[in-house]
Specification:
CATH architecture of the largest domain: Alpha Horseshoe
CATH class of the largest domain: Mainly Alpha
Distance between the termini: 38 Å
CATH topology of the largest domain: Serine Threonine Protein Phosphatase 5, Tetratricopeptide repeat
Number of domains: 3
CATH superfamily of the largest domain: Tetratricopeptide repeat domain
Largest sheet: 5 strands, mixed
Strand order of the largest sheet: 10-7-1-4-11
Shape: rod-shaped
Structural class: alpha+beta
Oligomer: single chain
Radius of gyration: 42 Å
C-alpha cells in the first residue's frame, strides 16, 4: 500500500483547495482527518473511511480523498477508489507530493483497465432508467460511470410504452454506449397467421356446402321412397320395372346423401380446427433495427477529464 498522507492539511493557507472554506471548517476536517489516519494505521478500515467521509463534508481537500482511497482499497470498492483518487490529483502534486501523485495516477490507470465504462442516454420524456434494478435517472438524461465487469441489465420504462431492456456482458477495459428508445405496443407488435386467412374458411365452406348437398340428396331420396310407397296398395302388388326404378333411385340418392354428410362433416370439423390453428399470433419486431445497441470500445485513459458516475440532465 502507498504511504498515507500524515502531514497537517495547511489550515489557514490560501491554496486553491482552501479558497472559500472557513477556518473552523478546515480545523474540523483536519481533526477528523487525523482520526481517520489513526484508524487506517490500525487497519480499522471501515472506521477510517467513516472519518474521512465526515472530514470531506467540512473540507474537500485532496489529501483526504487520497487517504480515503487507500482505506477503500482494502474494502474492495474499486469504483469509489477511482473516484477519490481522481479528486486527489485534481490540483496536481502539491497537496500530496510527487510520489503519491504519481501513485494515484498509476493506480487509476490500472483501474481503468480493470473496470468497464457505461454511457447510458434516454431522451423519452418521463421514462425511468435503471441499472441492475437501481434507478439511474428520469429521462431525458444521461449517466456515465465506471462499473464492475460482468453482465448488467439496463432498463428504460414508462407508462404506455413497452419496457426496453439491454443485457450485455462487459469485459474489463471495455466501454458501452447505450441509447435507449421506447416504443408503444402498436409500433413493435405485429400479428401473423400460419396460413392465408381464406384457407380455413374455404375448407369450412366446402364442408357446409357438401353437408347442404347431402341434405338435398336426402330430401330427393325421401321423395323417391314416398312415390314408391304411394304406388303400392295395402294388399301389395307385384314389383314392376317402374317401381324397381323408383326404389333404386331412392337408394342411390340416400347413399349419396350419407356420403355427402360424412364428407361435409369431416370438412366442417377440419375447417373449424384450421380456424383455431390459424388464429392471429402476436410477435415483437425490432423497428427497422433501431433498437438500442451496445458499442464496445476501449475505456477512457488516465489522461481524460471525464466525470465519473455523473447524471446529466
Amino acid at each position: 500500500m502507498a504511504q498515507r498522507v500524515d502531514t497537517p492539511l495547511d489550515v489557514g493557507g490560501n491554496r486553491p483547495w482552501a479558497l472559500g472554506v472557513p477556518r473552523d471548517e478546515q480545523q474540523a476536517a483536519q481533526a477528523l482527518f487525523f482520526e481517520g489516519n489513526e484508524r487506517l494505521r490500525e487497519s480499522v478500515f471501515v472506521e477510517a473511511t467513516r472519518n474521512y467521509r465526515r472530514a470531506l463534508r467540512h473540507w474537500n481537500h485532496p489529501a483526504i480523498h487520497y487517504n480515503l482511497a487507500l482505506a477503500l482499497m482494502n474494502l474492495d470498492q474499486p469504483i469509489e477508489v477511482y473516484k477519490h483518487l481522481k479528486a486527489a490529483v485534481g490540483h496536481g502534486p502539491e497537496p500530496l507530493d510527487s510520489g503519491r501523485y504519481e501513485h494515484a495516477r498509476s493506480y487509476n490507470a490500472l483501474l481503468e483497465k480493470q473496470l468497464a465504462w457505461v454511457d447510458v442516454k434516454c431522451d423519452e420524456e418521463g421514462a425511468i432508467v435503471t441499472l441492475n434494478g437501481q434507478s439511474l435517472f428520469k429521462a431525458p438524461g444521461r449517466y456515465q460511470a465506471f462499473i464492475r465487469p460482468g453482465v448488467h441489465s439496463i432498463v428504460a420504462f414508462k407508462d404506455g410504452y413497452l419496457p426496453t431492456e439491454k443485457r450485455q456482458p462487459l469485459m474489463p477495459g471495455e466501454k458501452a454506449e447505450l441509447d435507449l428508445e421506447l416504443y408503444t405496443e402498436d409500433e413493435v407488435i405485429r400479428y401473423r397467421r400460419q396460413w392465408a386467412a381464406w384457407i380455413p374458411w374455404t375448407v369450412l365452406g366446402a364442408g357446409l356446402a357438401a353437408a347442404g348437398g347431402g341434405g338435398v340428396l336426402h330430401w330427393k331420396a325421401n321423395g323417391s321412397f314416398r312415390d314408391f310407397d304411394s304406388r303400392i296398395p295395402p294388399g301389395g302388388r307385384q314389383m314392376t320395372p317402374e317401381l324397381e326404378g323408383l326404389r333404386r333411385t331412392g337408394s342411390r340418392l340416400q347413399a349419396g346423401a350419407v356420403g355427402a354428410y360424412s364428407l361435409g362433416g369431416a370438412a366442417v370439423v377440419t375447417g373449424t380446427v384450421l380456424l383455431y390453428l390459424n388464429r392471429q399470433r402476436a410477435y415483437r419486431i425490432n423497428p427497422a433495427e433501431q433498437g438500442p445497441t451496445m458499442v464496445i470500445a476501449p475505456a477512457v485513459d488516465a489522461e481524460s477529464k471525464g466525470v465519473v458516475g455523473t447524471v446529466l440532465f
